[in-house]
Structure formats: structure tokens, C-alpha cells
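Researcher: Final request for today, and then I'll write up notes for the group meeting. The sequence and the SMILES for adenosine-5'-triphosphate follow.
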Amino acid sequence: MTVAIPPLSLRNVSRSFGSFQAVADVSEDFGPDELNCIIGPNGAGKSTLLNMICGTLSVSSGSIHFGDVSLGGMPGEKIANLGIARKFQVPSVFPSLTVMENFHVSAANDLSQDGLDRILDTVNLHADSQTPAAELPHGKKQWLEIGMALSMRPKVLLLDEPTAGLSADETRATAEFLRTLKGRVTVVVIEHDMAFVRDLKARTIVLHHGKVIASGSFADIERNDLVRDVYLGRK
Ligand SMILES: Nc1ncnc2c1ncn2[C@@H]1O[C@H](COP(=O)(O)OP(=O)(O)OP(=O)(O)O)[C@@H](O)[C@H]1O
Ligand SMILES: [Mg+2]
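Model: Predicted protein-adenosine-5'-triphosphate complex:
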């Protein structure tokens, strides 16, 4: 049985640090029916936006709802308990524990062995299940962390630059397994790798100076003059 996943709704969300506005008036809805990708130049406010969704940072103004539940003022742990899982920009796994032991730390109580096996297949770590996390190459550490987030059986998966430091093949494999999550988990992924974003076939949102300057399919985004001007055209 599949459980309906409520939309994650941002309304006029802003965040300032002192007099500097890092995120300005963002209103977006994220759901499981399509993958969602956030792109934009360094310092555009992408990580700040994810930090507000998962409760690491409070909003300065605006609201974030998960279905009927307002996330405003809720501590991160409680937001995680609602099923909103987050992978940070830098991989954080337990280095001295094996891959399997890491999963035993993170997995939801009701995750079956079958479910865990499926996740190990998804993130391509079956052969490494007895390897200490410290000995994994960087790419597999990233996958382990995504797998650990999935083992919590999240409704929403927030990923901050999951392909940083991955090879082209690993990056393609990451897009492939994220695509398999469509319809089952709401995925919001921040990325700089445009080959990956093209591959992901996600709804893409472009942030610039904290504002959404374009959204739509990546094909639409690529043709957008403003986006080419401030971001894509620079590469
Ligand atoms: N805790 C903070 N205190 C002050 N300024 C901050 C803080 N966090 C972020 N900023 C500033 O807010 C802006 C947006 O930062 P953010 O990390 O969200 O950008 P980003 O889009 O994730 O960039 P990158 O692609 O480099 O990861 C930057 O100018 C950053 O210096
Ligand atoms: Mg960032």
C-alpha cells in the first residue's frame, strides 16, 4: 500500500543574516510526482533554503507547511520525525562502522530485511556491506549517506549536492537511482553539475540572489535568457 505524501509548500519564505537577505520571497510546492532540482550560482541561497525546510535554520518571514502541518518553529528532530530526511553537502557517515552497521543505526524500526536489501541494490552497495565506511571511496560514501536517509523511509528526501566529487559514471548512476524514487518520495536536490541535472529530468528551479528567477523543465531553463545570462552562460 502506498501512503499519499502531502506537498511541501513554501509561501513567501525569506531569510536574512543581519542586513543581508540570503533567500527572498520563495513560494514553491514540492511533491512526489516529479523530482525537484534547485540550481543557481554559489551563494544563491540554495543550502539556506534546504536548511529552513529541515529546521536547521528558522525562516525570517513566510511559512513552510508539510500538508496541514506548519514547520515554523519546529525543531529539526521533530521535522525529521515527520519523514523529512536531509543529506548535507559534506558526507557524514559513521566511519568506523561497516556499511551494514551504518544502516542498522539509521534504519526505521519497521524497515524489513527485504526493504534494506532493495535500498542496498538501489545505491549499489551490496558488495560493500561488510566494508568499514572509512574505507569506501568518496562516491560510495555519498551513496551510503543517501541510502541511510532512504532507510529512514522518508516521505521527503532533501539532497545538497549529492554528486560532488563523483565520477561521470557515478553521477549518471546517481541520477538513475534518484529517478526510481519518483512517485514514491518527494525529492528536492541541489546541484551544480548540469549533465546530472539534464539527466535527472526534474522540475528545475533557478535561484539567484535568493530569488526564484525561473522554473520549469531543464529544457525550458536552458533556453531562458536570464538564466543563461546569470548562470548557465558563464560555464
Ligand atoms: N549562517 C550564516 N550567516 C551569515 N551568512 C550566511 C549564513 N549562511 C549562509 N550565509 C550567506 O547566505 C548566502 C547564501 O548561502 P548558501 O549557502 O545558501 O548558498 P548556496 O546557494 O548553497 O551556495 P553554494 O552553491 O556555494 O553551496 C551566501 O552569501 C552566504 O555567505
Ligand atoms: Mg550550498
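Model: The chain has a mean pLDDT of 93. The pocket of adenosine-5'-triphosphate (ligand 1) is lined by residues 17, 22, 40, 42-48 (CB under 6 Å).
Researcher: Thanks, that's everything.
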